[in-house]
Every structure is written in C-alpha cells, then in structure tokens.
Write a structure and sequence with these properties.
2 helices; 4 strands; alpha+beta; four-stranded antiparallel beta sheet; single chain; elongated
Length: 128
C-alpha cells in the first residue's frame, strides 16, 4: 500500500507543481501597490509645477537658463528698446513690419533675399 500511496502523492505533487508554474507570477513577488489617489494627484501637480517653472525660466533666459541671473530674480529688468508694432505678410516670401526703436518708427520690408528700410520717422506717440 505504501508504494501506491507514494505514487499518488507523487502525481498530486506533480500536478501542484504544474499549477504553480502555470500561474502568473507578480513582478518582484510582492503584493499590490497601496498608493492613495491623493498621493498620485499631488505628485502630478508637483511635476506640472516644476515643468511650468522650467518653461518660465527658459522663456526669461531666451532659450537657456542663466543661473547667475537667478540670484536677482526680483530685480527690475531694463525696458526693451525695440518693439514690433505691426507685421503683415504681403507675399509668400516677404513681410512688411512696423518697428519702434528709441522713439523712432521704422517701416521695414523683409524678404528672404534682403531687408530694406522703407520709411524712418519720429514716433507719433512716444513709448511710456
């Protein structure tokens, strides 16, 4: 009787091994993740805040982050001297632009081949 029981145990153990091998294993063998929805949302908001801050720094620095100017981030920046008042496309390859620089207006024709100042006049209303 012992040999029969041994073979029955062997076949039961063999089928149990097959069942374990066929069952999908969890990665790392651990249980499910217990992360709250609030923690996920706060991590997303933190990442969005960091991305927005990086975009603002890149915009302020003209495409690169100037680490030395970050020390004076509250300092008043000098006024810009050049201002584009209006720009119109007059052909597929040319633009007509009205610019203001140091209280003077310039009418500029800009094309792929050249740029030409068409008119130069004092500004009608000075920049504040």
């Amino acid at each position: 009787m012992a040999p029969v029981m041994g073979s029955a145990m062997g076949s039961a153990m063999g089928s149990a091994m097959w069942a374990l091998a066929a069952a999908p294993a969890r990665l790392g063998g651990g249980g499910g993740l217990d992360v709250s929805l609030g923690r996920i949302v706060s991590a997303l908001l933190l990442c969005l805040l960091l991305a927005a801050a990086a975009a603002l720094l890149l915009k302020r620095g003209g495409g690169r982050i100037d680490w030395t100017s970050l020390r004076d981030w509250k300092a008043v920046r000098p006024e810009r001297r050049i201002e584009v008042l209006e720009s119109r496309r007059i052909s597929p390859h040319a633009d007509l632009c009205l610019l203001r620089c140091d209280d003077e207006d310039f009418l500029v024709l800009s094309s792929a081949a050249q740029q030409q100042v068409l008119r130069r006049a004092p500004a009608r209303t000075p920049t504040p």
